[in-house]
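Section 5.1 Outputs to date
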Amino acid sequence: MRSKLPDTSLELILQRHREGVILKKPDSLSKMQTTHSIYQLFKLPCNVYFDRYDHVAVNMNELSVKTCGCDSAQDIIGHSGLDFFTNETTIIGARNQVEVMKTEKVKIIQDTLMRHDEASYSYVCISYPWYSEDNKIIGVFGCSFPQHAIADSLTQLYQLGLLSKPKNNRIGNSSFDQHFTARETQCIEYTMQGKSTKEIAKILCLSHRTVEHYIENIKAKMNVKTKAELMAKVNEWLTSEQN
């Protein structure tokens, strides 16, 4: 009997984490964070999939299902690549995933997938280490696309933020959450982006006075008096957390 697979419900949010990705519940993220649900990712014009650390399929989109020569994701989930592809193809894929998980780095390779029925596909594959909530690697998140769709696929992955370095200075990923309310955290994030209280109020659909009240509470908690001091304190805090 196979062990339980990680949760990849369609409403979960994929977010960059370290050099890879992590899945979170929508209500655990601040509104200003750029996020994309698994449902949205599965609509991309390329193969999108999650594999567990032992190379067992956890979830994938319809294009991935077709690449495996199946009719439904349920025919693939819980199975390894050996059930659908040749030994050589499966070994190459497994080695790639092992390296991604071991180095905790994104890896891009060009490969040809060969199925048991001798159907073959030439793909460019981008693999990311997949983290759990407790920062343990639980598998690999991958996107692969055929040669003729490289430009369109890379453009969309770039727009989703999957081709850029993950940002380590997000307030929402730090211990700020232990000291400030969700609204105060949002106000800090937008203030660090150089936005005025009026701009923040418009973004958050709040009154100008309400945002000013949040900012004053933040200053009091941080023991500062001006916006410049607030921003300097935040930078100091984030820098200390990254070191």
